[in-house]
Specification:
elongated; about 375 residues
Length: about 375
């Protein structure tokens, strides 16, 4: 396995999660709710959970109050006594009327209580938050500049989601500031911990945007882009798909091919992105170009405007290469990440879609930076 495969494309497709309950019906419900998103293993006894954790830790555990013989709360206490599971993310499910038990579970740290009955989406949301909390806690061990880049861009990305929900303009100054350590890491050729650090994060939109921002910034340095223009690439990468926050989950994460109606819905993310970016008059024009043109193709078959050849800006041509490479090598719940070498072979066949001269430079960049 090459260093690039370890870094870019060999993570397991689904994040491992354990679920423990003494009730067969609850175990079945947990499995059915979580299987589409996680590599789920269920347990009917607390001893089996402890044994499994000692061999291979999951990203999180759902612990129901009914797990025999010690019960959910005692299982939490036992896990917290072990050095290897002191901070293991947990979700504790108990009857909603048992507020005292739910509050006690929370006191052990890295535990999210969830009152029964709950909706499946509430369970998935709780698991996702705890998985991400565990991943984000691991960033503390990362080299300082890269740690700052991850933390700042995630904070900025979450703020963008709030701004969109509130129908507020994007605060570009904050986005730019959040990307400053990312650009510093790229200039120092010290960015690999950032890519490793998001491999298991459960917010796909953030992961994809962070990876695009990283590789687009690296691509920019390769072709001689510096200063403010390099910051345009970084912020443009982080913002290029923000309109996907409008796309329904079932379309955004559909495993099979989108039908015509679904594809039209998916394509609308570009116009949504442009609408929000246009509300900030301070935004550099290059960011809007990246967001608006990264799905255009040289032969005019792209969207949203069917631009052709020289009508497509060079920044957008670069962004198109990075976006496709990212999509192919990203981990998704419905597909394995593609090895980068295979992704580049596929992209080399896109002669009528992608700028092959820029693609050759992109490949050389990956080789020179030891990410391929």
């Amino acid at each position: 396995m090459t260093a690039g495969q370890t870094l870019l494309g060999e993570a397991s497709r689904k994040i491992p999660v354990f679920a423990a309950s003494g009730a067969p019906r609850i175990r079945e419900e947990l499995s059915n709710s979580l299987r589409p998103f996680y590599n789920i293993r269920t347990f009917d006894k607390s001893e089996a959970v402890l044994k499994a954790v000692s061999k291979s830790q999951p990203a999180a555990i759902v612990i129901d109050e009914t797990i025999p013989p010690m019960g959910g709360m005692n299982l939490i206490k036992t896990l917290r006594k072990e050095a290897t599971s002191k901070t293991l993310p947990l979700v504790y499910t108990a009857n909603a009327v048992d507020a005292e038990s739910l509050d006690e579970a929370k006191s052990y740290g890295q535990v999210e209580p969830l009152g029964k009955p709950y909706q499946p989406r509430s369970l998935v949301g709780a698991i996702s938050r705890m998985v991400n909390a565990g991943v984000e806690a691991s960033w503390e061990k990362i080299e300082p500049v890269q740690k700052e880049a991850l933390k700042n861009t995630l904070t900025s990305f979450n703020a963008i989601a709030d701004q969109i929900q509130g129908d507020d303009p994007i605060a570009y100054g904050e986005v730019r500031e959040s990307c400053t350590p990312l650009v510093t890491a790229i200039q120092n050729q010290n960015f690999k911990d950032m890519l490793r650090g998001v491999q298991d994060h459960d917010n796909y939109s953030f992961v994809h945007s962070l990876r695009v921002a990283t590789f687009l910034s690296l691509f920019g340095t390769t072709v001689g882009i510096k200063g403010d223009e390099l910051m345009v690439l970084a912020t443009g990468g982080l913002l290029h798909d923000l309109g996907k926050m409008y796309i329904p989950h079932e379309v955004l994460n559909k495993a099979g091919k989108l039908d015509d109606t679904e594809f039209n819905v998916m394509k609308s993310h570009v116009s949504h992105t442009q609408d929000h970016l246009d509300r900030n008059s301070e935004l550099p024009s290059g960011i809007a170009v990246i967001a608006g043109q990264h799905h255009e193709k040289l032969d005019g078959s792209g969207y949203p405007n069917g631009l052709k050849g020289s009508q497509i800006n060079e920044l957008a041509r670069m962004a198109a290469i990075v976006d496709i490479f990212g999509a192919l090598t990203d981990r998704r719940v419905y597909k394995d990440p593609m090895p980068p070498e295979k992704a580049l072979v596929i992209m080399a066949d896109m002669k009528t879609h992608l700028d092959q001269n820029l693609l050759a430079l992109f490949r050389e960049m990956l080789l020179d930076s030891a990410t391929l």
